[in-house]
Amino acid sequence: DWNVEHIAYATWADAYVVAPATANMLAKMAHGIADDMLSTQLLATTAPVFVCPAMNSNMYAHPTVQENLSTLRGRGVHVLEPDSGLLACGVEGKGRLPDPQKIMDWVDFHLGKTELLEGKIVIVSAGGTQEAIDPVRYITNRSSGKMGYAVALKAAQAGAKTILVSAPTDLAVPIGVECIIVRSATEMKEAIDSYYDSADAVIMAAAVADYRVAEVADNKIKKQETMTLELVKNPDILASLGDRKEHQKLIGFAAETQDVITYGKEKVRKKNLDMLVANDVSKSNAGFDVDTNEVSFIYPGDQIVNLPNMSKLDVAERIIQALADL
Ligand code: C5P
């Protein structure tokens, strides 16, 4: 386009991400110097600006750089702290540019922020609990934790103080979320109970083991021709929250391989829920491990909302919207 180019870009962009942001560029930004294409655009844009400082650790710690960062923060510029590790100059320290995926997740998080759950406290559980057999073995299930982690991310993005109580998973803790790692159903119950009174909502996406081993062996059990494990029932965490519900909203999940809706309606009543997210895990593009899900929301009074197949992040966003509506 024949246009004043720095202004054309500055009005066209939805966001500016300066990665890496050098000490020099941060100084220019803080002091309004506009002597090249980037610094000029940064002065001309009204879009959100994200900076990822990356430099030698002494430069990063220098009061000038820190003051410039604090000036920029004060003006609403988003700053991502650099990682620590081996730097380009050969020394170890703080100053590494974070992984591009981490940068984009951070930018996405801020660009998608809403105030749907501002000021609320939300507990989200995730993952499959591990029930010990002996010091080296346990019983678990196929839950990957992906659905619960997506819900936690979307709750934080909606402005809620979000506490993720998670069984061990391979997933990174979502941005803006406080995470407590637990192993067994008993530990998960204790962690959730300790926050319940102050919580505004609990979203139980965890696949809690229904049983645990009656007597956990102190030492590794030796091989035998056959072996019998006696199992005892775990407490139903969600049902016990439902029993003593006051102001809290409770959302449960139900994974079934048949009659999803019939079982779902029953669970809403039995566990005193405000909403249940039901899914048929026998479908290949829904449920365990995959990144997509196909769910129905079931409400008390048997009202049902069927959602089409979509990414777990999109399902999570719908759940948070539904929670805000509740
Ligand atoms: O009865 P069912 O296990 O299908 O119910 C699933 C819902 O109940 C999920 O939200 C799950 O997190 C929760 N649950 C629980 N404690 C258990 C079993 C399930 O909180 N012991």
Characterise the protein shown here.
This protein is α/β, with parallel strands linked by helices and 326 residues long. An 8-stranded mixed beta sheet has the order 10-9-6-11-14-15-17-18, with helices on both faces. A 3-stranded parallel beta sheet has the order 1-2-3, covered by helices on one side. Strands 4-5 form a two-stranded antiparallel ribbon. The protein has helices at 5-12, 23-31, 37-44, 57-61, 63-74, 100-111, 146-157, 185-196, 237-243, 260-270, 312-325; strands spanning 16-21, 49-53, 78-79, 83-86, 92-96, 121-126, 131-134, 137-139, 161-166, 177-181, 201-204, 211-213, 231-233, 249-256, 275-280, 292-293, 295-298, 304-306, 310-311. It is built from 11 helices and 19 strands. 33% of the residues are buried. 34% of the residues lie in helices and 25% in strands. The longest helix has 14 residues, at 312-325. It is globular, with a radius of gyration of 24 Å. A hairpin with a 2-residue loop joins strand 7 and strand 8. Bound molecules: cytidine-5'-monophosphate (C5P).
Record the SSE blueprint:
Blueprint: H1 5-12, E1 16-21, H2 23-31, H3 37-44, E2 49-53, H4 57-61, H5 63-74, E3 78-79, E4 83-86, E5 92-96, H6 100-111, E6 121-126, E7 131-134, E8 137-139, H7 146-157, E9 161-166, E10 177-181, H8 185-196, E11 201-204, E12 211-213, E13 231-233, H9 237-243, E14 249-256, H10 260-270, E15 275-280, E16 292-293, E17 295-298, E18 304-306, E19 310-311, H11 312-325
Parallel strand pairs: 1-2, 2-3, 6-9, 6-11, 9-10, 11-14, 14-15
Antiparallel strand pairs: 4-5, 7-8, 12-13, 15-17, 16-19, 17-18
Helix pairs in contact: 1-3, 2-5, 7-11
